[in-house]
Amino acid sequence: MAVATKATPAATDDKELLISGSEAVAEALVLADLDVVTAYPIRPYDTVMQAIAKKIANGELVAEYIVAEGEHSQFEIVKHASTVGARVFCGSSGVGWMYAMECLVVTPPLRVPMVALVGNRALDDPGAFGVEHNDALVVRDVGWLLCWIDTSQEALDTTLIAYRVAEDRRVFLPLAISADGAFLTHSQALTMVPPKEKVDRFLPRYDRGDLLLHPDNPITVAPQANEDWVIEIRRQNNEAMKRAYTVIEEAYADFRRVFGRGPENPWFEEYMTDDAEIILVGMGTISLPIKVAIREMRAKGKKVGLVRLRWFRPFPTDRLVAALSKARALGIIDRDYSFGSPFGSGVVANEIRAALYNAERRPPLLSFICGLGGREVTLEDVYKATDMCYGAAKSGKSDATTHWLGVRE
Amino acid sequence: MAAVICEVVYRGIFQKNLAARIVRGIVLSARKSGRWGIAFGRYGDSPQRNGIPAKDFAIVADTKEELEQNMARYEPKHVDVTIVVDDTLAKGVESWAWYGLQPINRLTVPNGTVLMTSVQRVDDLLRDIHKKDAPYKLSLIRAKASFSGLWVYKEDHTEVRILGALAKIAPSFLTLDGVCEAIREMEWGSDLKIESAKKAYARLETREVKITEGNAEVPYSFEMPKWWEMREGVTIPAIPVGKPKEDGKGYVPERNPYFKKYTTRSMRPVINFDTCVKCTLCWIQCPDSCFDVMPDGTYDANMEACCGCGVCEAVCPVEQCITMVNESVFEDNASQWEMWRKDKGAYQTWMTQKIGDKKATVRSHGFRFRGQYEEELKSDLDSGGVEITAGIPGENAQHKTA
Questions:
Q1: Does A230 touch chain B (CB under 8 A)?
Q2: What's the CATH number for B262-361?
Q3: A13 touching chain B per CB within 8 A
Q4: In this structure, which CATH number among 3.20.20.70, 3.40.1160.10, 3.40.920.10, 1.10.10.60 belongs to the domain B3-209?
Q5: Arithmetic mean of pLDDT over chain A
Q6: Of residues B129, B263, B101, the one with CA closest to residue B207
Q7: With left for phi above 0 and alpha for psi between -120 and 50, is residue A209 left, alpha or beta?
Q8: Taking the domains of chain A in order of start, what are their residue ranges?
Q9: Do A228 and B227 touch (CB under 8 A)?
Q10: What gap in Å lies between CA A27 and CA A262, rounded to an integer?
């Protein structure tokens, strides 16, 4: 339940609420004047559909709220609503997201700028509720914009930015915001909610232009095509993804101008990296125990820093390489797995290895898998990883393996 | 020749199994001469549908390496033999998979062969077949278009007759003995079929075609758009709304300028405008919206859009108001209504002649009524004009005389 508080008066006309990441997304959807939302319950995403339902029931938001009979329909409905010009939202978690897969892969070529919240959840089996990033990551190759958040504030801000980016005519791609199940979806924190007037200055109306499905603009959407057409369509998709780099930069710059907050670097958060010998890399709420551990280690003279990736697609290759290549060693901590991949590493580690391939300076890179299925990432896990990274820094070599942390053995 | 490349141009679905048997037969026959081969077809959506031109291919070569040059392709860039199992395809092919109108001999190499089943005279066929900038041979097997490939294969021996003819055209790759041996070993083979192949070998009619001969029409074509010229989002604009035919009367819809259906037809409707009761049924039921509304309220089948399905003839409540007639008897795609308006007497004569030619009107898509195909085969035999042998492999085969 959202609670207004006077303890820390807002410096601006924002109001401060104690809300979860999911509730923060719902606040943003009200501010974005959402048109159509579809829902089908699965934990932990269901917290956001409940929050939106409450907003609509309370009269704070006028929108179509459609309960689908499954995730497949859930995503199909918003896809169609988006083609007729509606601003849409939906979301899911774990195997629910997988069930929608057919609809997820068709939205990028159709250039449907739907915004989805993936409440990250381990894939079945076993049936589990805790966070793993493999659910959202399955769309990483097909044209979805993909980002990770780590606080309620970032949930709210990123949702507003998401519409601005996805609905930009230069992009028109679906966008998934990934939020760690439990740690963010079910955890309430004090969050600044801006007034609608500010949001209106930041977020223009969704204009689908000549792609609008409307009697005044008769078009056929998604005809069948043979080999004479498909690669051109893929090429269009690739260009849209490339243009997203500029559009994301613009959106964050404008967000800072209008709201007076937000990061200079949209792509990733750098924590104590200026003089860092060891840089750890992760996505989502894993940043929180890592930051604590870094402070502890720095008190003991170890120069450790963190890069928390926000944007995974498009992947911030150049900036990330510039930030990482200055370290003596890197430790990539994946909250996902990619069985049988190079070195058995997680997805993020392998992406960063590939990104560094052309770099002039390639620090030794160690790959870690940690926190699967919602297992807490402990300070000891981080210390252990850091010590191993120091070993690699000393030897100057990466080890051709992947280290699992926090596993009973 | 180190390789022989063959295409089989057929009418989608009706001849699909026929084409597949021919290309398999080519490869298996050439194997008897120690050759390597592949048989393939391009699948898709429309090419598998009623009457749409489609192609299968067979390539046989001396070595596997030569074969690889032609593998992992949808279709070869050139062919030594173009096999055409429906002579209405002499007008060319266009479909979902090809853009613009392709002359039937487009892929045929200089001095290559177009092998066709037809009962037409060569001069009549050359009115339809486009001119080519190199000489080639036109070989004919005297038979009408086989419908033996529709769902369940009907044995009319067309596939073995093609193979027998190929033994004459490319003897170093397909010997007659090799063809006969391959037929004997095939699941659908029989001694009767071997005899049919030998007859086709003996009776094949071949004639050189000079570069001066053929249909002088320049086939329409269009450029494929670049990726940045295509509208994003897998969207294509609708065809614009049409206009009245003239003086605010009638209605002519706009049509897709890139996909004309001239060659998708094996038959076309001939309309008696004098008996039309303007009931609208043909106009409503046509799956391709091919009917234009004329100022007088009658309906003219626009040949740019008609794919020759025959639904209009089936739904028309007036006897002989709409009659489907074999496409090969028409020389152009002009408006029948305009001809009728200009000279009603002349039109009556023209129309009566077209619909009165039994040979041109019996052809069908095979499902006007059950057993029609068998009746057609029988009547052909009775008239003695066209030799078609029928036989079923297995126990019945040996009781038939070759």
A1: no
A2: 3.30.70.20
A3: no
A4: 3.40.920.10
A5: 95
A6: B129
A7: left
A8: 15-259, 268-404
A9: no
A10: 17
Each residue's pLDDT tens digit, B175-229: 999 999 999 998 778 888 899 899 999 999 999 999 999 999 998 888 889 999 9
Tell the residue number behind the tokens 């896809």, with chain if given.
Answer: A79
Q: Count CB neighbours of A95 within 10 A.
A: 17
Indicate which of A169, A172, A216, A236 best probes the interface with B, i.e. most B CBs within 10 Å of its own CB. Answer: A236
Fold topology of A15-259: Rossmann fold (3.40.50)
Q: Where are the domains of chain B?
A: 3-209, 262-361
Q: What's the pLDDT tens digit per position in A118-150?
A: 999 999 999 999 999 999 999 999 999 999 999
pLDDT digits (tens, 9 = 90+) for B226-264: 999 999 999 998 888 899 999 999 999 998 887 788 888
Say if residue A44 is preceded by a cis peptide, omega within 30 of 0: yes
Residue that has been written with the tokens 């924590």 in this structure: A271
The beta-carbon neighbor of B231 closest among A210, A218, A225 is A210
* Residue for token pair 């120069």: A303
**Spatial CB neighbours of B180, under 8 Å, sequence gap ≥ 6:** B194, B197, B198
Provide the sign of the torsion angle of the four alpha carbons B208, B212, B215, B218, taken in this order. Answer: positive
> In a 10 Å sphere around its CB, with 0-12 CB exposed, 13-18 middle and 19+ buried, how is residue B267 labelled?
buried
Give the three-state DSSP class for A242: helix
Within A194-277, strands assigned E span 219-221, 268-271
pLDDT higher at A77 or B69: A77
> In terms of pLDDT, which residue wins out, B150 or A216?
A216
Residues in B touching A225 (Cβ below 8 Å): 234
Which pLDDT score, from 0 to 100, does residue B387 have?
A: 41
Contact with chain A for residue B238, Cβ under 8 A:
yes
Give A289-342 pLDDT, tens digit per residue: 999 999 999 999 999 999 999 999 999 999 999 999 999 999 999 999 999 999
C-beta atoms surrounding A394 within 10 Å: 11
Q: Which two tokens stand for residue A393?
A: 């820094």
Nearest CA in chain B to A169: B232
Identical topology for domains A15-259 and A268-404: yes
Question: Which residues of chain B are within 8 Å of residue A223 when distances are taken between CB atoms?
Answer: 234, 236
The secondary structure element, H or E, covering residue B25 is: helix B16-31
Please tell me the class of the A268-404 domain.
alpha beta
Q: Summarize pLDDT for A231-255 with one digit per residue, the tens.
A: 999 999 999 999 999 999 999 999 9
Q: Is the pLDDT of residue B46 over 60?
A: no
CB contact B371 to A (< 8 Å): no
The per-residue DSSP string of A301-316 comes to T--EEEEEE-EEES--
Question: Are the beta carbons of A233 and B231 separated by less than 8 Å?
Answer: no
**Residue in A221, A107, A97, A120 with CA at minimum distance from that of residue A171:** A107
B234, B258, B259, best to mutate vs chain A, most A CBs in 10 Å:
B234
Chain B residue numbers touching A231 (CB-CB < 8 A): 227
Q: Which of B248, B165, B173, B228 is nearest to B4 (CA)?
A: B173
What residues in B contact A172, CB-CB < 8 Å? 232-233
pLDDT at B399: 39
pLDDT beyond 90 at B364? no
A-B CB pairs within 8 A amount to 57
